[in-house]
Amino acid sequence: MRDYTNKKLKVWEDEVVSYFPAKASVLDIGCGMGREAFCLYDKGFKITAIDISENVIEPAKQFAIESKRDIEFLLTNGLDLPFKNNTFDVVIIWAQTFGLFYGEDNKIHILKECNRVLKRDGMLSFSGHDKEFIEYKYPQYLDGKKFFAYANTDCYWEVFTTSEMVDLSQKAGFEVMECKRGMVYKEEDGPILHCVCKKCM
User: What range(s) does the Methyltransferase domain occupy (predicted)?
Assistant: First the structure.
């Protein structure tokens, strides 16, 4: 049985988790192979995890069953969330998934969807690639706001400044609690930008 939990939460993720209410219901958007979902479940949170790719959802779902972790893994596009209003205490969009929602309209749409499915005073945490760091460290892979991290592919992440992330959050109706650079596992990994927001209506 492959161990999908051999990686811990990143340093910045662990810091953000300290904001979450105990035993909170968490929606993990863009869960991939489930690293964050399994880590958060083991910390006592109730997890619903979604991804657009069946290739990652099915193995994660199978591992959850085999390891007796009660995590709901769902295949969905992530842009239009298949949940009722006021369902979750926390929503996370980690692993820089937010940068895969191309264009401002899509970003505001998904953030508004997060707002909709959050309970009153619910929390949103999302991350993105740091534009200033990528400009300095990997300018050859940057085309405007597009960061092409993998060779010979059209896939890219959009990069951000903290002010852009704050602006998007506020346009979607959130109160920004913090938006800053965070450490991945060690300094040489480079920083990640992340925002922690609160539903304010």
Answer: 26-122
